[in-house]
């Protein structure tokens, strides 16, 4: 059994929502985990949830109040999001380096990353990230499209490559005009 985490979060209907507590709001206010709901609770993504479970910051429970094991949650997350593990490796690596990472679906990318010390809403993200596995390929057309997304949103493009050992390497790409 894991040690007691500071915040209890409910996992039901493929959603994770924290309790209404000062500690839960601190996850949002200080580290920008999740999105703050009107009632003071925080809605977490699967990536954020798994990260916070690993860091022992949350205790995940089901609708009956029974603890949801990390392995059970991971299995469900992989079923809901087929690329969960590749995306999680990038998410964890960026968070462990002290950056805030959020989704970037409206930009056409997986993630947007804020420079250290910058919180979403205070300034713009510096990078957009596309996670790929080491053996994955894409065409020059797909690569150009990713670069164009970054350029049009005034962000730098990072390709996050995850190898078989779940180690991450980054390739920064820029759009240049000759």
Short précis:
The protein is an alpha+beta fold. It has helices spanning 22-31, 46-54, 70-80, 84-96, 140-152, and strands spanning 7-12, 15-18, 35-36, 42-44, 58-61, 100-103, 111-114, 127-133, 156-162, 168-173.
Average predicted confidence as pLDDT: 91
Please indicate the count of domains.
2
- Specify the CATH class of the largest domain: Alpha Beta
- How many strands, which pairing sense, and closed or not: the largest β-sheet? 5 strands, mixed
| Topology, number of strands | 10
Q: Helix proportion of residues, in percent?
A: 25-40%
The strand order across the widest sheet is 3-4-2-1-5
| CATH architectural group of the largest domain | 3-Layer(aba) Sandwich
Secondary-structure class: alpha+beta
Q: Tell me the series of helices and strands, N- to C-terminal.
A: EEHEEHEHHEEEHEE
Described by the principal axes of the CA atoms, the overall outline is globular
Q: Tell me the distance between the termini.
A: 59 Å
- Return Rg in Å: 17 Å
Q: How large is the count of helical segments?
A: 5
């Amino acid at each position: 059994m894991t040690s007691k985490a500071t915040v209890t979060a409910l996992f039901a209907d493929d959603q994770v929502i924290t309790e209404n507590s000062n500690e839960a709001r601190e996850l949002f206010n200080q580290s920008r985990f999740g999105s703050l709901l009107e009632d003071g609770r925080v809605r977490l993504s699967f990536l954020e949830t798994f990260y916070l479970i690993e860091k022992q910051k949350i205790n995940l429970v089901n609708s009956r109040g029974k603890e949801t094991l990390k392995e059970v949650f991971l299995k469900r997350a992989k079923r809901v999001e087929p690329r969960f593990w590749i995306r999680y490796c990038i998410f964890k690596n960026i968070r462990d380096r002290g950056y805030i990472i959020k989704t970037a679906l409206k930009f056409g990318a997986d993630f947007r990353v804020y420079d250290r010390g910058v919180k979403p809403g205070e300034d713009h993200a510096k990078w957009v990230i596309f996670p790929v596995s080491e053996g994955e390929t894409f065409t020059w057309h797909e690569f150009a499209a990713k670069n164009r997304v970054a350029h049009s949103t005034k962000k730098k493009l990072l390709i996050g490559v995850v190898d078989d050992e779940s180690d991450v390497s980054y390739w920064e790409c820029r759009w240049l005009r000759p």
